[in-house]
Amino acid sequence: xxxxxxxxxxxxxxxxxxxxxxxxxxxxxxxxxxxxxxxxxxxxxxxxxxxxxxxxxxxxxxxxxxxxxxxxxxxxxxxxxxxxxxxxxxxxxxxxxxxxxxxxxxxxxxxxxxxxxxxxxxxxxxxxxxxxxxxxx
Length: 137
Known about the structure:
By secondary structure, this protein is α+β, with helices and mostly antiparallel strands. It has one domain: Ribosomal Protein S5, domain 2. About 35% of the residues lie in helices and about 20% in strands.
């Protein structure tokens, strides 16, 4: 045990989806819920998760293994939570101001979460704002 291994654990959230990412030195493998990113379905969610990986140089990407566990929400919320966890993890791994400016210039929600949530349902109607209509005739 002469060398200390660098392991970073970080999380990302979107709506009700929560992603926990673990980054460690490796060969560039990325797994989402134990599925390689290349096989992840649906394709639009896969592309969303790959966005921070496409912003960094290949040399850095081939040095880090990323394992992401995602739970809760829908598939797109999970994809955005995983994307945020990966971007934050890469930023914490490199400690680079340049990388932070690249991410914020591309899309700020990669680092800063989106605070919007579903409005809770109120009484007197089927949803949060809609009310039962009245007819006087």
